[in-house]
Amino acid sequence: MKIASILASLTLATAVIVPAAHAATPEELIRPIQDQWAEIKYKTPEKQQEEGYNKLAQQARKLAEQNPGVAEILVWEGIVLSSEAGAKGGLGALGLAKEAKAKLEEAMKLNDKALSGSAYTSLATLYAKVPGWPIGFGDKEKAEEYFRKSLAINPNGIDPNFFYGEYLVDRSRIGEARTYLETASK
User: Fold this and answer.
1) d(CA 160, CA 169)
2) Which H or E run includes 122?
3) Which residues contact 136 (CB under 8 A, 6 or more apart)?
4) What is the pLDDT of residue 21?
C-alpha cells in the first residue's frame, strides 16, 4: 500500500514537472515548404523547376492532409501548385492552376487574412496570368479586385506590391506601377 502511494505521488509529480509537447504553429509547419520553394525558385535551373515543384506539391498536400483546416498550409499548397503550373506552362498547366485556385479559395474561406492576405495575392496573380474563357478562368478585373484586397490587408508587403506592380506594367499602366514597385523594393 505504501509503495503504491509513493508511485502515485511520483507519477503525479512527474506529470507536473514534464512540460507538455510543443504543438507546432502554422508558421513552423510551413517553414520547410517555404524554404524548399525558395530553393527551387531561386537556385534550381529553370528546366528542373517543374519536377522540383511537383515533389514539393506532394509534400504540401501531405502536410495539408495531416493538418486539415489550416489556412496557412492551404495557401502554401496553392502557391506551390501555381508555381508548378508556371514552370510547366501551356495548356497542360491549366489543371494545376485550377487546383491551386481551389486551394487558395479554401484557405480564404478559413481565414482570408492568413499570412497577411497572401491567398488574395496568389489568386490575383492566377487570375492575371491564366487565359480567360473559353480556355481558362483568367479575369483581369477579378485580378485587380484581389490585388486591392491583398493591399488593404498588407499595404507595405513586398509580394502584394511587387505582383500588383507587375500586373500594372503588363496592363501598360506604368505610372501607377512605379509606386507599387518602389514600395516593394523598400
Assistant:
1) 14
2) helix 118-129
3) 94, 97, 130
4) 58
pTM of the model: 0.85
pLDDT per residue over 62-74, tens digit each? 999 999 999 999 9
Evaluated on CA atoms 60, 161, 98, 91, the torsion sign reads negative
- Residue 150 in contact with residue 158, Cβ under 8 Å? no
Q: In a 10 Å sphere around its CB, with 0-12 CB exposed, 13-18 middle and 19+ buried, how is residue 21 labelled?
A: exposed
Residues 6+ apart with CB under 8 A from 73: 26, 29, 30, 33, 60, 63, 64, 67
Say which DSSP state 136 is in.
S
Q: Are 177 and 168 in contact (CB under 8 A)?
A: yes
Identify whether the C-beta of residue 161 lies closer than 8 Å to the C-beta of residue 181: yes
Place of cell 497572401: 118
* The three grid cell numbers given for residue 124, joined into one nine-digit string: 490575383
